[in-house]
Automatic annotation (TrEMBL):
Organism superkingdom: Bacteria
Organismal lineage: Bacteria, Bacillati, Bacillota, Bacilli, Bacillales
Assigned keywords, A-Z: Cell cycle, Cell division, Chromosome partition, Cytoplasm
Keyword flag Cell division: yes
InterPro entries on file: ScpB_csome_segregation (IPR005234), WH-like_DNA-bd_sf (IPR036388), WH_DNA-bd_sf (IPR036390)
Name of this chain's protein: Segregation and condensation protein B
Amino acid sequence: MAHNLNAAITALLYTVGEDGIEAEQLISSLNIDEATLAEAMASLSLPGLTVQKYGNTYVLTTEKEMEPYIESLILNKVSTKLSQASMEVLAIIAYNQPVTRSDIELIRGIASDGPVKTLIAKGLVEPKQQPDVRGQQLYTTDLFLNVFGLNHLDDLPTTDEETEEIESFFSNLVNQKGQNNI
């Protein structure tokens, strides 16, 4: 029973994801009592993973020792080259956020779904649905700031600066990250 219970707990924690699951819901879903849950959680062994308890909520997380591997994965995910179109779209989003896909297409004069999807997949841009706006609003992420070595969006060159300086800024940042590898 303990093995099946551990498997069931693992499956439930995996299913609920980063939101976690409250102890009462685990107890109810597994048809066990609080003492059994506490015992099962204490004996749960998941290589590379751990269960954190925040208040009354259990969340499946990675062990601290796995951080270098996860960081490497994230950096590799964004280390592939961005196309010129993706760089243009990224600049439009960075300077005009929040912005919709149609706004981007209006500015560029060409369909931009591909570059937008690429930027979202690389974690540089995230879509957010606003209740008062019809389309998704696109924003840059903290990863964008990290990749480009910025502390805040205010650190982006302003349009008051020379165009050459803005181009130099992006060129230098891209080259710092490995010859246009983002």
